[in-house]
Design brief:
329 residues; mainly alpha; two-stranded antiparallel sheet; 14 helices; flat
Length: 329
């Protein structure tokens, strides 16, 4: 009898394994069946996939430069290996901590102002009932995004010049006694950069929030209006909760770029007088890598930036998961 029971148990196990294998095979077949139905979409995605592989993953071989005393005339694997010397020098360099501070502060300013202004503008645009006026405001807010940073920086420099419109208006309003050299004093740079980033990108950043608002069921607004809810109450209790998943996802992705505060704006608006506040990690990498030919140190700084951003991304995603919010994966 015991032998029979053992035989039965083995038979059951074999049947379960067969079922699990069949289930795995069926899922595999279902996956490729669904994939074949979307073959045109996959073909359209192929160029972008190749672009990511060629320009994002293949260059990771270059990280080996961070452990070398790199000389451009030699092959990548014929260089002199120095181990962690570049990282040791990087973390002992006082200038590195200054640019790290600048990067974190500017990135945080851009993150907070970018989020708040884009969400507020999207909410206000959603409340407009005059379609022509709404489209006009949208178009005006989008236009600066399509201006190159070279042109945008020149506009900002002209506006902030001693004889520029900002000084003229403030003198007429008696807010200042004499023209201020705004870009000549480092303490003003972070505020100027934040305002410039908002002016240039706020219209473009509202697009995704406006798209998310359109997915909210209109019957919720109708029911709230019948119950006597004001526009402000409908914003706080219907619109904002409706776009909350999108806000969380964008926040997670932006935290993954916390050490990428930009390059063009800092490079074009920065000068010798505000260098202590305008120089960030990207400019630091450019200075050491291209101007001083210290490619190993520049690569180590870039590698540090990528690893920190990756840690922030994973941490933000896990926090969102534990809080029951929408997440990347």
């Amino acid at each position: 009898m015991e032998l029979g029971k053992g035989t039965v148990q083995v038979g059951k196990t074999a049947v379960q394994l067969a079922k699990s294998n069949n289930t795995g095979t069926s899922r595999f077949k279902t996956f490729f069946k669904e994939l074949s139905k979307q073959k045109m979409l996959m073909l359209m995605s192929l160029p972008f996939l190749l672009w990511v592989i060629i320009f994002k993953y293949l260059p990771l071989w270059g990280w080996t430069i961070a452990f070398q005393k790199f000389k451009p005339a030699k092959d990548l694997f014929d260089q002199k290996w120095v181990g962690l010397d570049n990282f040791k020098f990087l973390f002992q360099e006082q200038q590195f901590y200054r640019v790290l501070r600048n990067t974190l502060v500017m990135s945080s300013i851009n993150l907070v102002l970018g989020f708040v202004t884009a969400i507020v503008l999207a909410l206000l645009l959603n409340e407009l009932r005059n379609v022509l006026f709404k489209r006009t405001v949208q178009t005006i807010s989008y236009l600066p995004y399509f201006i190159s940073w070279v042109v945008a920086a020149n506009i900002v420099q002209m506006a902030l010049a001693p004889e520029g419109i900002i000084n003229v208006l403030m003198l007429k309003m008696q807010l200042i006694d004499h023209p201020v050299l705004w870009l000549g004093e480092g303490k003003y740079f972070w505020g100027i950069l934040g305002a410039t980033e908002v002016w240039k990108n706020v219209g473009w950043n509202t697009i995704i929030y406006l798209a998310a608002i359109t997915s909210i069921d209109p019957s919720q607004y109708e029911a709230a209006e019948i119950d006597g809810a004001s526009r402000l109450q409908r914003m706080f209790y219907i619109t904002l909760p409706g776009i909350k998943p999108v806000i969380v996802l964008i926040l997670i992705m932006n935290l993954g770029h916390i050490l990428e505060s930009g390059f063009e704006a800092q490079y074009l608006l920065g000068n010798g007088m505000n260098l202590d506040y305008s120089e960030n990690l990207d400019i630091f990498v450019l200075k050491y890598g291209m101007q001083m030919n210290n490619f190993g140190l520049a690569t180590a700084a870039g590698m540090f930036k990528t690893l920190v951003s990756f840690i922030f991304l994973i941490a933000a995603n896990n926090i969102a998961k534990r809080m029951g919010e929408s997440r990347l994966y």
